[in-house]
Amino acid sequence: MVSAMHTVTLIPGDGIGPEITAAAVKVIEASGAPIQWDRHLAGMAALEKFGTPLPEETLESFRRNKVALKAPLTTPVGGGYRSVNVTLRQEFDLFANVRPAMSFEGTRARFDDVNLVTVRENTEGLYAGIEHFIKAEGKTIAAESIALVTRTGCERIVDYAFRYARQTGRKKVAIVHKANILKCTSGLFLEIGREVAKRYPDIECEDRIVDACAMQMVMDPGQFDVIVTTNLFGDILSDLASGLVGGLGLTAGANIGREAAMFEAVHGSAPDIAGKGIANPTALIMAGVMMLEHLGEQATARRIEQAVRAVIKEGKHVTPDLKPGSTCTTQEMADAIVAELQS
Where in the chain is the domain with CATH 3.40.50.2300? Predict the structure, then answer.
């Protein structure tokens, strides 16, 4: 049976983005996946060409296709334009950020048996963008942010985490919070989380205070299965989880909404190595794996993942971040994965 063609909005990104995008596209196309790419710009590349970091034609492509694969985008620190990632998540209500952290045999990681998923609320909290400066006598004397936490937002992200656990055969969900101090915002999240957990008696539920959770993840990550938490805490803990398996170059993320989904490498645009051809393409390729799963192409997704794992395990054709001293380029690693796919 031949699968229907899927049209996907492809955003090559900034910095190393175009290089790892070329590698990911090569691997996905070599797999035979029925994907048609609809290429559009965002971030710094779009700003330079169109005068805006998020052109309307990019938004329209995503609205039309409802699926996007996105490489890293540059966000200025401090001033400049607001994060395009945050804007896309809010524009398309991509409320669930799903970040698996799984060990790869052959990497230099502190643990070799990590298999956990962080499910992060993606549109509210301190990333809602409700902030301002407080001025007096012409000077900025303070800055204030409001963390927006709604009952609807809490309920749908915790429910998503439990449904995800059930659908993927996972057994436990940890609700992570700071309700001992942030009694309103984190308190509401914990209260609603416990209510939602009662709907899933087949899934074990526990709650953890975020700082203790971070320590416990570093000491014994095997005690975690699915973590669900609010926006800022999820941003931090998911990066910590990436560090447990060898770094951000190995981890992908999905941004899931009711109507649309965006898949991405979660690391930065790394302008310091842009153009050198040494960026690790694994994260964006694994984002493509998550995208194919979302599109119902599970068999192809598994083939690509197995090929990536085989190449990393062998260690002959991996980028320098995975093997110090390696002279393997981004495209050579992609070629090795393609060869493994076709073997």
Answer: 124-244
Kindly tell me if the per-residue pLDDT of 286 is higher than 60. Answer: yes
Fold type of domain 1-109+246-343 = Isopropylmalate Dehydrogenase (3.40.718)
CA distances from 155 to 124, 195, 209, 294 (A): 12, 9, 19, 22
User: Residue 73: which of 9, 13, 18, 12 has the closest Cα?
Assistant: 13
Whether residue 1 has pLDDT greater than 90: no
The encoded tokens of residue 214 equal: 């971070």
CATH number of 124-244: 3.40.50.2300
Report which residue type is found at 245.
Answer: V
Q: Give the model confidence (pLDDT) of 56-76 as tens digits.
A: 999 999 999 999 999 999 877
Of the pLDDT bands very low, low, confident and very high (cuts 50, 70, 90), residue 274 is very high
Active-site residues, by number, are 127, 178, 211, 235, 239
CATH 3.40.718.10 range(s) for the chain read 1-109+246-343
In SS3 terms, 270-333 reads as CCCCCCCCCCCCHHHHHHHHHHHHHCCCHHHHHHHHHHHHHHHHHCCCCCCCCCCCCCCCHHHH
Q: What's the CA gap between 136 and 121, in Å, rounded?
A: 35
pLDDT at residue 195, rounded to an integer = 98
Record the pTM.
0.93
* Closest of 70, 73, 79, 98 to residue 10, by C-alpha: 70
